[in-house]
Amino acid sequence: MEGELGTLPTIAEGKASFPPSSFLTDPIQAEKFVQETGVDALAVAIGNIHVTEAEDIDLDIHHLDAIREHVSLPLVLHAGSGIADGAVKKAIRHGIRKINVGSVLRKVFFDALKEKINVTDPFAHPYDIIGSGLDEDVLLAGKIAMKNLIREKMVIFGSAGKA
């Protein structure tokens, strides 16, 4: 079971509107949380922001190291879509064992759908496109785009070929 401790702002809220201590997982609280809940993995807040693809998010690796000193189970990085590959690799070297990249996966899926059915409206809502009913070959285009991105991320994250 995975637990999460800390606050992850969304891009709409913006990182600048939060003092750093309000969105970082407290290492001492993390240790207590893990002991009291018995979780198998812990998602931590180290500067990551939900629902962004900008790849300009800075992670606080020193804070990650402080959490690692108090918690010995696998650590999880939510909101990995907005973090540059180099920063993710560094986080992995410092104890992150799972990375969620849902925002960028949704984006490549919907971009592939829009391209396949020739949607030119940049403001077209992806769920309206799906709600209109799609042929299997259109959905397949989205699935292939996601599969290709997942393969890329597995190489970047160092997990390719380690089944």
Describe how the helices and strands are arranged.
Blueprint: E1 2-5, H1 27-37, E2 41-44, H2 61-70, E3 75-77, H3 85-93, E4 96-99, H4 102-116, H5 126-131, H6 136-157
Description:
With 163 residues, this protein is α/β, with parallel strands linked by helices. The chain folds into two domains: 1-100, Aldolase class I (TIM Barrel, Alpha-Beta Barrel), CATH 3.20.20.70; 102-163. The chain is built from six helices and four strands; from the N terminus they run βαβαβαβααα. The protein has helices at 27-37, 61-70, 85-93, 102-116, 126-131, 136-157; strands at residues 2-5, 41-44, 75-77, 96-99. α1 (27-37) links the parallel β1 (2-5) and β2 (41-44). The radius of gyration is 18 Å and the shape is elongated.
